[in-house]
Amino acid sequence: MREDMDSAANCYGNDERERKLRKVKRAARSELSNSKGDWYKHGYAQSDICNTTGVEDHIPRIHWKDLSPEEFVERFERPRIPVVITGLADNWPASENWTPDLLKQLYGEHKFKVGSDDEGYAVRLPMSWYFDYMSDPLHGGRDDSPLYIFDGTFADREGSKPMRKDYEVPLYFQEDLFRYVGEKRRPPYRWFVMGPARSGSGLHIDPLATSAWNTLLAGHKRWALFPPGTPRCHVLPREQGVEREAVSWFSTVYLRAKEADWPTAQVVDLLQAPGETVFIPGGWWHAVLNLDNTLAVTQNYVSEANFERVWKHTRKGRPKMSQRWLGALEQERPDLAAKAHDLTIREDLECDTGSSSDSSSSSSDSSDSSDSSSSSISNKRQRPGSDAKARMQECTSERKEPFSA
Ligand SMILES: O=C(O)CCC(=O)C(=O)O
Ligand SMILES: [Fe+2]
Predict the structure, then answer these.
(1) Within a 10 A sphere around the Cβ of 258, how many other Cβ atoms?
(2) Which of 77, 173, 312, 388 is the most buried (most CB within 10 A)?
(3) β-strands 211-218, 285-290: how paired?
(4) What is the pLDDT of residues 74-132, one digit of tens each?
(5) Distance from the alpha carbon of residue 201 to the mean position of ligand 2, in angstroms
(6) What DSSP string runs through 153-177?
(7) Given the CA of residue 199, which atom of ligand 1 is nearest to it?
(8) Ligand 1 touching residue 203 (CB < 6 A)
(9) pLDDT tens digits, residue range 192-231?
(10) What is the SS3 assignment for 237?
């Protein structure tokens, strides 16, 4: 259908290429299309937005050799505590192979997703063009919030499939209960992620209450986290000038979150270095700013530890898929299928008696659900400022969310 975005690889001259690149940028960020200067009107490239002096990172670092899978579940996954695990990528081929030169050589012609257009179609650029874009002082080097490769189909598309063999899903995250939905129908769950300084991910909670791991192979990422239950209206206020993109969020809301009168949970800072794997439990808000040229792989998953929350969100947000999932669980994991049935009966009873599920859950859960139940997992990377904004709610209405995890 919208293959026009895909035609970038077929052109030759530089003017033609520039024209096509502009077209791709316009498609990916139509709100910046009034004038070329919109892309760099904030001057973030000249600011100290990527300077992390004074940022304190207190997240524990644990080498995988010192953390058994059972310990991970008990200490971090069940209590939903973020952690950084080191050494997991030491033996991955990606640690050797994912250099700019090799990536260009192997995948230079292949088009990776750099955004979505206003109709939700993927906007793609060939990898070699993207490398040029990143280092171009008139594009990636100057743009306030540069295009970001965030490709959730790299492992399925012919041209990039071999990349999947370059990393392994770490032992801690292998349960992957959505696999029972089937490869074709399960929500997207793995992304190749690459971007320069100032690109990143605006504040969000991952969809369907799934947890995530994110391994950085090159460069540095700055994370800001808020625990489950942090009201959306505090961390994503509906006001002019506060946008969802990482750069603008870090230069507005983040600064407020550091002030003495910040009304809600303290922001948790994290500075991710190459080779580190961040674990983000379901329900945690997170924003990520790339501090230099970064290369990462991330996957979302469901395990026994987050199953109940994910089930509730999936039943509500993806009802048809949830029934297919339940059917498969009845065969493969009858224990979890029984849990799902139990939860469903309890929720339906609550509905029938008109009682709010608030009484049986913390406010934290109602605010996770306001985010992730209403978005599908395919929106893991949402277009900044699009439907995300429409879904913003006032604090008061958020507390009334009838659904809670
Ligand atoms: O590396 C990033 O930009 C963050 C990724 C992220 O938050 C996500 O994949 O959900
Ligand atoms: Fe995320």
Answers:
(1) 13
(2) 312
(3) unpaired
(4) 999 999 999 999 999 999 999 999 999 999 999 999 999 999 999 999 999 999 999 99
(5) 7
(6) STTTSTTTGGGGGG----GGG---G
(7) 3
(8) no
(9) 999 999 999 999 999 999 999 999 999 999 999 999 999 9
(10) coil
